[in-house]
């Protein structure tokens, strides 16, 4: 049975509609203030209204609910406001890309290349760039994902002493390497073997792998450290070898986080432009050979089309939309993989 104190606390709470009423009044007050002093704008009304709302809702809560609930409402309002502010550029970016890219995006755009397209012709698509992006990103993933996962396993399960510390420092340094440096590194390696005229998707894959590997190592390492040691000790107590414990227990437990980390690494490199300008260049036709010849990629395609302006700018926005859709599809596949292979209790 509730006590008198409990009833008193509950009776002093604001009704659910009160914060919304305060918010509406704050926006009206901000609009009136701007109408008297300057020309009202949506951004100005929202900004001033938000400031007024923070002060007003805290003051009303202090008078009705007391200091403790007022402090709670203030913290909740600030956290919610920070979230909304962080969402503004994301929503604006997606809206701009969808609105501008949707004008040219379509089946013809996805299935045609730029062969025979000159000047400001409205035809042409990004099929060759899509193939090139899948090639380059696939090569980078084949190199960096196994290397990154094995390195993370070593650091968490086996690494001790100076070697582990040296690898950790190296990974931290590689995380901050500019993308253009990775491109120059890969170009220099193949330059000494094949000469300066050699261009291929392999060089671009190596350049992106340099950027992708430290991200994979860091994310997988953090996921492996979150696996409780009790699970490892239980497997050891049953006589399971350490390598089998890592494969069957540790990796299976952390597979959802590992998949997420890998997808973050892929999203990190799939939109890189500078290293691909140096290593793979650009071409108007579709090149299915990943080991020889220039190959188009979506980031470079978007850059070149936007630089030309006019009708080409529409193709650039459509290419950007295509790149976002590819990343979204990869994330959906990653979630499906993590759902299938995660332990049943973690699904």
TrEMBL record:
Provenance organism: Georgenia faecalis
Gene: pstA
Coiled coil (UniProt feature): none
CDD domains for the chain: TM_PBP2
Domain ABC transmembrane type-1 intervals: 130-334
Membrane-spanning residues: 17-36, 42-62, 74-98, 129-155, 167-191, 197-217, 249-270, 316-337
Main location: membrane
Protein family per UniProt: Belongs to the binding-protein-dependent transport system permease family. CysTW subfamily.
Name this polypeptide is given: Phosphate transport system permease protein PstA
Pfam families cross-referenced by the UniProt entry: BPD_transp_1 (PF00528)
Topology versus the membrane: Multi-pass membrane protein
Claim: Transcription regulation is one of the keywords in the record: no
Role of this protein: Part of the binding-protein-dependent transport system for phosphate; probably responsible for the translocation of the substrate across the membrane.
Keywords assigned: Cell membrane, Membrane, Phosphate transport, Transmembrane, Transmembrane helix, Transport
Signal peptide span: none
Cited NCBIfam families: 3a0107s02c (TIGR00974)
Location(s), subcellular: Cell membrane
Top-level taxon: Bacteria
PANTHER family cross-referenced by the UniProt entry: PHOSPHATE TRANSPORT SYSTEM PERMEASE PROTEIN PSTA
